[in-house]
Design a protein that fits this description.
With 470 residues, the protein is an alpha/beta fold. It is built from 14 helices and 25 strands. The strands form 4 sheets. Strands 1, 2, 9, 10, 11, 12, 13, 14, 15, 16, 17, 18, 19 and 20 form a 14-stranded mixed sheet that branches. A 6-stranded mixed sheet has the order 6-5-3-4-7-8. A 3-stranded mixed sheet has the order 23-24-25, with helices on one face. A hairpin with a 6-residue loop joins β19 and β20. α6 packs across α7 and α9 crosses α10. The longest helix is centred in the N-terminal third of the chain and has 17 residues. The termini are far apart. This is Acyl-CoA synthetase. Pfam families: AMP-binding (PF00501), AMP-binding_C (PF13193). It comes from Catellatospora citrea.
């Protein structure tokens, strides 16, 4: 049964007033957001109007450009919606970027206004911040395209790309969510663990919840106790939305409390490892759903009821095909602006660079990992994803990354020295000789992207273990 009836009854349309009509509409007293304290519709509209006045005073007009370098916060949400109400193009910069990285991004994007935060952010794993936002005009240029949002890719496997999406594309993605079985319904709650600066938290969290009348809650901290407190703080059916890192975190709790309102957890990004998924469902007694998407497109396919793991059903309106072992997504225009790889979008098809297959009988798609994870060792094909999952499942291994650079190389976080010493022997039992890592680095921590994905760029991984440099 589709959810489209309660949402719109018809596909959504991005009119000039799309922010007011699809995101801000509703009863003044309805609580829509929790950034530490509840924010009702009237309060959100007031915050948006206040930021809109500030941006207009700085000269921002329809067709202008603004960059937001704000952490997840009410200030972030209000500035984003305010800029879109004006009709400006918004570039989203992760607040965790260094000053050097921020300057490089601004030089690349050339926004006319930059909104950042004053002071220093407190440390620790936080889902939201209370910040004072500061908007400043700069010598930038108006938007060169009609896109509503510009994002830099996470760069988990290489240099970042400039990805742009129109208001129509954002609205179409919101519409896809309303038409999928298993998404949170009006009157329910979402406890969001993914960042609202990136596509899963932005559209699947903030925009969808505002449109659908789902209360969006950000826990005070990204710790097990804080997340579970956020779930237990309300009685409405609640969905957790995050990435595999958050599932692993919650699964590490051996005795979670009874949470009758907890309905489901949905993860985006990489597939949760099978043993972690089993441990999570055993301990919490709820469905662990899976979602596959890209910054370029948003949500592509889902398995929200955990029925087809590891396969997924394409989202409504999404066409997926398999070509030479790669998944391709039908997209009418390139999502990239500026310099980009011309092979990424060809003749209406976005090349995901993900290996996968599509079942012609059922339409189900299965993501098999990055296309570049398929390597040849001595003429024999090896799937680095298989090697990585095997290593990560061994006793004592907290996380692992496997790469290829003339040979298979592995980086693993293994706090216990005895477990680390036993790894090569354990791998010899589970993997054929040609699949085993030539070199195994035991490191204290593995680098992750801002979205929580493990980085697989060889140069970045060297920083985790300086002895791995050639």
């Amino acid at each position: 049964m589709s959810n489209s009836g309660w949402a719109t009854g018809a596909p959504l349309a991005a009119t000039p007033d799309w922010v007011d009509e699809l995101l801000l509409a509703g009863d003044d007293r309805d609580v829509c957001l929790h950034f530490g304290s509840p924010v009702d519709r009237a309060g959100l509209r007031h915050a948006v109007a206040d930021r809109e006045d500030t941006l207009r005073r700085l000269g921002l007009v329809r067709g202008g450009s603004v960059a937001l370098r704000l952490p997840p916060s009410l200030a972030y949400a209000a500035n984003l919606l305010a800029a879109w109400r004006i009709g400006a193009q918004v570039a989203l910069l992760d607040h965790r970027l260094t000053a050097y990285e921020t300057d490089r991004a601004l030089d690349r994007l050339q926004p006319q206004v930059v909104v950042s935060f004053s002071g220093t952010l407190p440390g620790g794993l936080r889902a939201f911040y209370e910040v004072a936002d500061v908007a400043e005009a700069r010598d930038g240029r108006p938007a060169e395209t009609g896109h509503a949002v510009v994002q830099l890719s996470s760069g988990s496997t290489g240099p970042s790309k400039v990805i742009a999406r129109t208001a129509e594309q954002l609205v179409a993605e919101i519409d896809r969510y309303t038409r999928m079985d298993g998404v949170p319904l009006p009157g329910e709650r979402v406890v969001l663990l993914a960042s609202v600066v990136h596509v899963l938290g932005l559209v699947g969290g903030l925009l969808y919840c505002l449109h659908a009348g789902v209360e969006l809650v950000l826990p005070e901290r990204l710790t097990v106790d804080a997340i579970l407190r956020a779930v237990s703080a309300g009685d409405a059916p609640t969905t957790l939305l995050g990435v595999p890192f958050h599932t692993e975190l919650l699964a590490s709790n051996p005795n979670p409390p009874k949470l009758p309102q907890l309905k489901r957890m949905t993860t985006g990004g990489e597939l949760v490892r099978a043993e972690v998924a089993q441990r999570f469902t055993d301990r919490y007694g709820i469905v662990l759903g899976n979602m596959y998407g890209m910054t370029e497109v948003g949500v592509i396919a889902t398995d929200l009821f955990g029925e087809h793991r590891p396969s997924l059903t394409p989202a409504p309106g999404i066409t997926v095909r398999e070509l030479d072992g790669e998944l391709l997504i039908a997209t009418p225009a390139s999502p990239y602006i500026g310099l980009s790889d011309p092979t990424r979008w060809v003749d209406g098809w976005l090349h995901t660079k993900d290996a996968g297959r599509v079942d012609p009988a059922t339409g189900l798609m299965t993501v098999l990992g990055r296309l570049d994870s398929q390597v040849s060792v001595g003429g024999l094909k090896v799937d680095l994803t298989e090697v990585e999952h095997t290593l990560a499942a061994l006793p004592g291994v907290e996380s692992a990354v496997v790469v290829y650079d003339g040979g298979i190389e592995a980086f693993a976080v293994v706090p216990d020295a005895a477990a680390a010493a036993a790894l090569e022997g354990e791998l010899a039992v589970r993997l054929a000789p040609y699949k085993r890592p030539r070199v195994l680095h035991i490191v204290e921590q593995l680098p992750r992207t801002a979205t929580g994905k493990l980085v697989r760029d060889r140069a970045v991984l060297r920083t985790a273990d300086p002895t791995s440099a050639p």
